[in-house]
Amino acid sequence: MTPQFTNPLPIHFKSSSLGPARMLAAATGALLLFFALAPHATAQTPTLYVVRGMPVHAKISENFLPQPPLTKADIGQIKIGGKVVPVTDFQPLLNGPHGLQLMVLLDSWQMLGAGPGQFDAIKQFFHDMPPNVEIGVGWLLQGKVVVTQTFTTDRDLAGKALVAKTRQEAANPKNDNGNPYSCLGYLAVHWPTPDPGKLRAVLMFTDGAIRNNALSNSGDQVDPNILSAGTKMEIAGIILYPFFWQDPIVADPNRSGGSAVEAADNFTQMDALTGGTALVEGMFAPGSLEPLLNRLYSTLKSEAILTVSDPDKPGNRSRIDLKSTRDDIKLFGADQIVSGNVLK
Fold first, then answer.
1. What phi, psi does 250 have (nearest 5°)?
2. Would you write out the chain's pLDDT as a tens digit for each of its 344 residues?
């Protein structure tokens, strides 16, 4: 129904121009009419979203291979909660104006770094990061994250925090990781030195196995541990890049082992929730970390940060649908977006 407005006082036009009081009354009436006809026109919330391109016809195993960096012209229609929203800004993730806090997590049940060159590859990855990236280091331990190096731009300082577990330490029940996804859920609500002006991401080295819930692994539903952790990370704006690592020599032969298949399935579920990408190569842990770390660098380089004009109120979570202007790629990011997460 079209709203009707009546003016209780007659307006007598003595000339072709209105006096100041009448001009104000006319402007007020127009403003009221604007709000009545378009009550949501001003309810636009600037919101950030990290996105990358993927080949349309790629096989599942190839979906997350790095693509060339996106351009603004590649971004087509964006819908939030079924409503088309405009993109108001486009920036690269690396070497862009937004700071990025990258937390690197090691599994306390694994002996990553004991092999030759393993930590050297990670340290080189640190040095490859541009100045807008800060790096922190921590451990997955008993369902929590123990931070050994807070965020820093000093690459050598971050590298010194990489200390390998001995076989005895990795086998000690006190070093039980307590489920890597529980650790991620903890980190999401206990982010070290939180800075509302910076983006957040996690690089996690683990076998990805869930050992403490007695549930059979199934590909037809999201594990509650993963769903809980992914939801918390989504709300906190954290993107996960899980790297499959399992020691070739098991520290404790009585410990139930995971597999690359199980890890890939769990990691893929986290990808959809956080917008990250799993780093898994074949059926076993990689002999060298460099190829997958190079893939991660290329992935980060390909990603872009969109600022969209969100119709929802700050804090709301809504489904986001993406469409590219190109026929050969599709856009990928988290399944949902949290309104109003623009950094201050």
1. -70, 135
2. 433 333 333 333 333 344 444 444 444 343 333 233 333 444 578 889 999 998 887 654 454 566 789 999 999 999 999 999 999 999 999 999 999 999 999 999 999 998 889 999 999 999 999 999 999 999 999 999 999 999 999 999 999 999 999 999 999 989 999 899 999 999 999 999 888 889 999 999 999 988 765 455 444 566 889 999 999 999 999 999 999 999 887 777 777 667 788 888 899 899 989 999 999 987 888 889 999 999 999 999 999 999 998 888 888 899 999 999 999 888 999 999 988 876 65
Domains for the chain: give ranges and CATH numbers. 45-93+304-338 (no CATH), 99-288 (3.40.50.410)
Q: Decide: pTM greater than 0.70.
A: yes
Please enumerate in sequence order all residues whose Cβ is within 8 A of that of 269, keeping only pairs 6 or more positions apart, or say none.
222, 223, 226, 227, 230
Residue 193 has φ and ψ, to the nearest 5°, of: 40, 60
Structure tokens at 67: 């693509």
